[in-house]
Write a structure and sequence with these properties.
Radius of gyration: 20 Å
Number of helices: 15
CATH superfamily: Glycoside hydrolase 144 (GH144)
Strand order of the largest sheet: 5-2-1-19
Helix content: 40-55%
CATH topology: Glycosyltransferase
Number of strands: 20
Distance between the termini: 40 Å
Number of domains: 1
Shape: globular
């Protein structure tokens, strides 16, 4: 990796955020698998789960190479080489109907244990592949298109319920549906981009849970109120200034959700001292928890867990929605004793319990890096949304530019 001076970048942008972004990039560059059979696959987390590679995190790594090249942290040719080799690895992995398993083995690229065939993890990988393809062009774009076009979205479509299914376990069959709003908007965009006739119907059919945020605004909330669900699709799709056929603005919705998270934490200073916020799925003192989040949530606010654990990626992943608030709390994170390691901020911490997670979770580092790049340079947005099939997909789904944008 070519080492370059960060001085100009750091002076131009907030130093704490840029430092964390650069650490996230180094994390991706230095920890992906170098095994010939699994080159480019990203471990689920470091250091404790290196043997378990996440296909969604691999998508983040591909996009991270574009970000690294754009910010001058890696030579462009070197970054493109990593992407091309990784895309060849991905294409050769075991899959079905173009869909990939959630996890693979680090050394040989085989399916990890009884991991499921996953719609959302496939989508997040494909989005990262297309971002790298659009950014670097040439053979990288050809390889990315080969992967994207293989995905047969109709296979996972439940025509009776008019919803995409979430996953398929080879041993048990199909599992659940995307029945309520969560992180899955990227699925409809990619399905429409691939010409799936069910994409618009599926987008119209999932449930929208309306509630009142802490600032009094109405918004559509997710089942567990966890911030990543309001962020992941936005890392790739530029929803800003766009409304769907019903006039709904998903970007504005994520702004409200992010503000709600901050106010939710502020109302509980005993759990979240010094104005810290950012409730999202992360490591906790009792293990990984997927429902760390703020109210409102499902089942009468019984589905979110707020135990004092905060993940820096929660606030940093919202930097495009709440730039000032995200920058302010990042500076607090960087001054918190023991929260920074070799690759920047650790995954999470719980100040009331005196606990810090001494690990890095790849998708958390990914959302931090990509959203920071979008905030400062629109790196991922400019690449992904430049693709003709993505622009067409947005029209197919009924999105138009807002009159006030």
């Amino acid at each position: 990796m070519e080492k370059k001076d960060q001085t100009n970048i750091a002076r131009e942008y907030d130093p704490a955020v840029i430092e964390e972004m650069h650490a996230c990039f180094r994390y991706f560059y230095e920890t992906f698998s170098r095994s010939p059979e699994a080159f480019g696959l990203m471990p689920d987390r470091v250091p404790d789960l290196r043997a378990k590679c996440s296909i969604a995190a691999t998508g983040f790594m591909l996009a991270a190479m574009a970000v690294g090249a754009d910010f001058g942290w890696i030579d462009r040719a070197d970054a493109q080489h990593v992407c091309d080799a990784t895309l060849k690895t991905i294409y050769g992995l075991k899959k079905d109907y173009g869909f990939y398993y959630h996890f693979y083995e680090t050394e040989d690229g085989e399916r990890y244990k009884k991991s499921e065939l996953s719609t959302i993890d496939t989508a997040l990988m494909v989005a990262g592949a297309l971002t790298a393809g659009a950014y670097f062009g040439g053979n990288t774009l050809k390889l990315a298109h080969r992967i994207a076009k293989d995905v047969q979205w109709d296979y996972f479509y439940d025509r009776d319920k008019k919803m995409f299914r979430m996953a398929r376990y080879d041993e048990l069959g199909m599992e659940a549906q995307w029945d309520y709003y969560a992180e899955q908007l990227i699925i409809y965009v990619l399905a429409a981009a691939n010409g799936a006739e069910c994409a618009r119907e599926a987008y119209e059919s999932f449930g929208r849970l309306h509630g009142t945020a802490a600032n009094g605004k109405d918004f559509v909330y997710t089942w567990c109120g966890t911030l990543f669900t309001y962020q992941f699709s936005h890392a790739y799709v530029d929803f800003a200034g766009k409304t769907d056929a019903h006039g709904f603005d998903w970007f504005a919705n994520s702004v409200t959700a992010s503000i709600n998270d901050r106010l939710f934490c502020a109302a509980q200073p005993g759990l979240y001292p010094d104005g810290i916020w950012g409730l999202t799925s992360c490591a906790t003192p009792v293990g990984y928890r997927g429902h760390i989040g703020s109210a409102p949530s499902g089942n009468g606010n019984r589905e979110n867990l707020s135990d004092g654990t905060v993940a820096p990626c929660g606030a940093l992943g919202s930097i495009v929605f709440t730039p000032q608030e995200s920058v302010e709390v990042t500076e607090k994170f960087t001054h918190y004793d023991g929260l920074t390691g070799n690759y920047g901020l650790y995954d999470s911490f719980n100040p009331t319990a005196g606990w810090i997670a001494k690990c890095y979770i790849s998708i958390d580092k990914g959302i931090t890096l990509l959203m920071g790049a979008n905030h400062y340079r629109r790196t991922v947005w400019n690449a992904f949304n430049s693709l003709p099939e993505i622009r067409k997909a947005m029209r197919t789904l009924g999105f138009t530019t807002s009159a006030h944008s």
